[in-house]
């Protein structure tokens, strides 16, 4: 019983009738309540009836007076102990009545008991004029209808469509004084969820205008339209059966309700009232409004759909901007740290190729920062406002990698329960980064070549290709030339990818960047942990600079994260906090007597390296293979180091 009618009784007769428009009816002597009672036994704010989901309930508002429900012979108290009590049709609410005073009685009627309008005519939706059936009238009416439908179709938003519909109704039915439109609340679970959204009235000049004050709408009429799924013509509202408060309060003499529908669902009700004289509307008025409603139904449904799509698009755009902004902060150009000559040369190359369409192949050792370079290429290009998408080709087996990159149709393989877009489609207009591209299977390499040559993507299970504009940036820690020579990589794809190669130098070739990188990572992890760290001691920094860093920047980053966790708040990072393999050079630094005041950092590091290499060769009897193994480098690396240090 979501809708009720309340009748205030005196000597068993109804003296006041109210059919609530809202969800709450407050009862009392105050002028601010919805149902005012002047009896002295009633408190200013005595009780309230709440009509929300589920049955209507009554609750006492700490009135200090009596509140009860009379249900047949049973009397049910309503107070703080009982809390809200559900109401049933036929209940009589009793308020006050202490001592000799009589209680005020209010009878409750459920929706099924409400007085129905005096219906003169009712036609099911299937029998309404429309399509090939014209309304009764003539060519003038048809011309007017065509013009009004064009106006409705020309409206560019939902508000414009609704206004055009109600204005058209007032034009087609000259005897109407009010036109209202109720739309179904899409959040409601049943047909009762209709809300008035727009009312227009006939102005002094005869045209349609907005009302000067709120206009009450007769709920009983549009409820009947929805319940019966039919157009309703009712007249002489103030007499007989049309005595409900919603009609009496609105002074409605005659009314027409016509449904708006989409497929089998009623999405709204167009209601016209005459509040001037009784018995004014005719069957021809129902006909012409029904024809109007057929076109208006489609226009309203489309306008609401467009509104939802625009809201969804706006929300997605906001989310996209937020995620891109967060991604830039997390991994954008602010994290490109380094001032060494080798790294500055790399940044110069990035600047030259960033704003071109050329495919870029990034070569470098594991952990050297290849994805960060790809990220910089994207955010320094005109594609920065579109997506940057990364995929490690070694992380997925061939079948899953193909689906991930190219997408698939529903039913293309076992488990493909729905269609899915691939990364190429998601990155359309942006950049796709393929890390470890040498791990791509040969069969899949042919499809990659097709994308690079033609911009053509064919999802798994699809018969028609799709075309995308994606810049491909690939990366590898292997030699692509060797992979081609061994038959593990297509030569034609190799030439397509290596249009503009970029080599990321390993960290050992840009030791000058170790202090800046270490300070940067320490600041980041200190902030994440909420624990300030003062910085690095000179000896700790010297040890970091002396290390070979076979794992490159990633290894350094992990080392600094571990140090930040161990360090005491406000303290400096000292050598004992470093990993044992980093501290191996500590004795060598002491033996060599190196300090930061003795020449440049490069000279100091060369001196330390010269000492370490010489000691390794001495300990291993000048066996270069054993010395290289002890130093943690390859035999070729040792030869290169000897030549670099002037020992070879």
In terms of topology, how is this protein built?
Elements: E1 4-10, E2 13-18, E3 24-28, E4 35-36, E5 47-50, E6 57-60, E7 67-71, E8 74-77, E9 85-86, E10 92-95, E11 104-110, E12 119-124, H1 139-154, H2 158-172, E13 178-184, E14 194-202, E15 208-209, H3 219-228, E16 230-235, H4 245-250, E17 254-262, E18 265-274, H5 283-331, H6 341-353, E19 360-363, H7 370-379, E20 388-392, H8 398-406, E21 407-408, E22 420-421, H9 423-426, E23 431-435, H10 442-454, E24 456-457, E25 466-467, E26 471-476, H11 480-485, H12 491-497, E27 500-503, H13 514-529, E28 535-536, H14 538-546, H15 552-566, E29 572-573, H16 586-592, H17 601-619, H18 624-631, H19 635-645
Parallel strand pairs: 3-4, 19-26, 19-27, 20-23, 23-26, 28-29
Antiparallel strand pairs: 1-2, 1-11, 3-5, 5-6, 6-9, 7-8, 7-10, 10-11, 12-16, 13-14, 13-18, 14-15, 16-17, 17-18, 21-22, 24-25
Helix pairs in contact: 1-2, 1-5, 2-5, 10-12, 13-15, 17-18, 17-19, 18-19
Description:
By secondary structure, the protein is of the alpha+beta class. The protein has 4 domains: 4-113, Tumour Suppressor Smad4, CATH 2.60.200; 119-306, GAF domain (Beta-Lactamase); 332-505, P-loop containing nucleotide triphosphate hydrolases (Rossmann fold); 509-645, Helicase, Ruva Protein, domain 3 (Orthogonal Bundle), CATH 1.10.8. The chain is 38% helix and 21% strand. The chain has 19 helices and 29 strands. The strands form 7 sheets. The protein has a 7-stranded antiparallel beta sheet with strand order 12-16-17-18-13-14-15, with helices on both faces. A 6-stranded antiparallel beta sheet has the order 2-1-11-10-7-8, with no helix packed on it. A 5-stranded mixed beta sheet has the order 4-3-5-6-9, with no helix packed on it. A hairpin with a 6-residue loop joins strand 5 (47-50) and strand 6. The longest helix has 49 residues, at 283-331. It is elongated and about 120 Å long. The termini are far apart. 34% of the residues are buried. The model is unreliable at 188-192 and 237-250 (pLDDT under 50).
């Amino acid at each position: 019983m979501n809708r009720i009618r309340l009748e205030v009784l005196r000597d068993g007769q109804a003296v006041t009738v109210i059919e609530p428009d809202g969800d709450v009816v407050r009862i009392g002597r105050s002028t601010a309540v919805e149902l005012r009672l002047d009896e002295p036994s009633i408190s200013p704010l005595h009780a309230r009836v709440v009509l929300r989901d589920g049955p209507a309930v009554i609750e006492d508002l700490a009135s200090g007076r009596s509140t009860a429900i009379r249900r047949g012979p049973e009397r049910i108290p309503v107070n703080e102990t009982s809390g809200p009590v559900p109401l049933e049709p036929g209940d009589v609410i009793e308020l006050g009545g202490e001592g000799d005073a009589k209680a005020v009685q209010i009878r409750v009627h459920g929706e099924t008991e409400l007085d129905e309008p005096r219906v003169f005519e009712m036609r099911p939706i299937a029998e309404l004029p429309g399509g090939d059936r014209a309304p009764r009238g003539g060519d003038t009416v048809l011309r007017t209808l065509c013009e009004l439908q064009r106006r409705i179709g020309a409206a560019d938003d939902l508000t414009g469509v609704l206004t055009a519909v109600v204005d058209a109704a007032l034009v087609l039915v000259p005897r109407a004084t009010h036109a209202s439109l109720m739309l179904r609340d899409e959040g409601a679970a049943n047909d009762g969820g209709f809300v008035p959204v727009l009312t227009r009235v006939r102005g002094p000049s005869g045209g349609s205008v907005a009302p000067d004050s709120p206009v009450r709408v007769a709920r009983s009429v549009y409820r009947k339209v929805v319940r019966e799924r039919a157009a309703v013509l009712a007249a002489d509202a103030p007499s007989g059966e049309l005595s409900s408060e919603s009609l009496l309060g609105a002074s409605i003499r005659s009314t027409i309700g016509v449904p708006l529908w989409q497929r089998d669902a009623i999405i709204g009700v167009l209601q016209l009232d005459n509040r001037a004289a009784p018995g004014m509307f005719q069957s021809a008025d129902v006909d012409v409004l029904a024809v109007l409603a057929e076109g208006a139904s489609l226009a309203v449904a489309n306008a609401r759909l467009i509104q939802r799509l625009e809201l969804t698009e706006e929300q997605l755009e906001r989310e996209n901007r937020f995620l891109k902004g967060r991604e830039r902060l997390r991994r954008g150009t602010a994290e490109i740290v380094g001032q060494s000559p080798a790294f500055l040369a790399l940044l110069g190359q990035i600047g030259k190729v960033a704003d071109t369409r050329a495919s870029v192949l990034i070569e470098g050792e594991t952990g050297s920062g290849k994805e960060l370079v790809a990220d910089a290429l994207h955010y320094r290009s005109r594609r920065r406002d579109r997506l940057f998408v990364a995929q490690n080709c070694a992380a997925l087996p061939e079948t899953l990698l193909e689906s991930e990159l190219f997408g698939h149709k529903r039913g293309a393989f076992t488990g493909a329960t729905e269609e899915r877009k691939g990364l190429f489609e998601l990155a359309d207009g942006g950049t796709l980064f393929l890390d470890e591209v040498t791990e791509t299977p040969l069969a899949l390499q042919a499809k990659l070549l097709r994308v690079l040559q033609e911009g053509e993507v064919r999802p798994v299970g699809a018969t028609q290709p799709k075309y995308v504009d994606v810049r491909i940036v690939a990366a590898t820690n292997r030699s692509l030339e060797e992979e081609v020579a061994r038959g593990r990589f297509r030569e034609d794809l190799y030439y397509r990818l290596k249009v503009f190669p970029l080599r990321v130098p390993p960290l050992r070739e840009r030791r000058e960047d170790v202090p800046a990188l270490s300070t940067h990572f320490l600041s980041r992890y200190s902030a994440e942990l909420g624990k300030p760290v003062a910085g690095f001691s000179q000896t700790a920094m010297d040890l970091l600079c002396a290390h070979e860093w076979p794992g490159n920047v990633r290894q350094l980053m992990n080392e600094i994260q571990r140090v930040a966790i161990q360090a005491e708040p406000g303290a400096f990072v000292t050598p004992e906090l470093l990993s044992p393999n980093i501290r191996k050079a500590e004795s060598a630094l002491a033996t060599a007597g190196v300090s930061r005041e003795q020449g440049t950092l490069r000279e100091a590091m060369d001196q330390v390296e010269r000492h370490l290499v010489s000691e390794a060769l001495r300990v291993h009897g000048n066996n270069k293979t054993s010395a290289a193994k002890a130093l943690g480098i390859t035999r070729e690396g040792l030869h290169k180091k000897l030549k670099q240090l002037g020992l070879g």
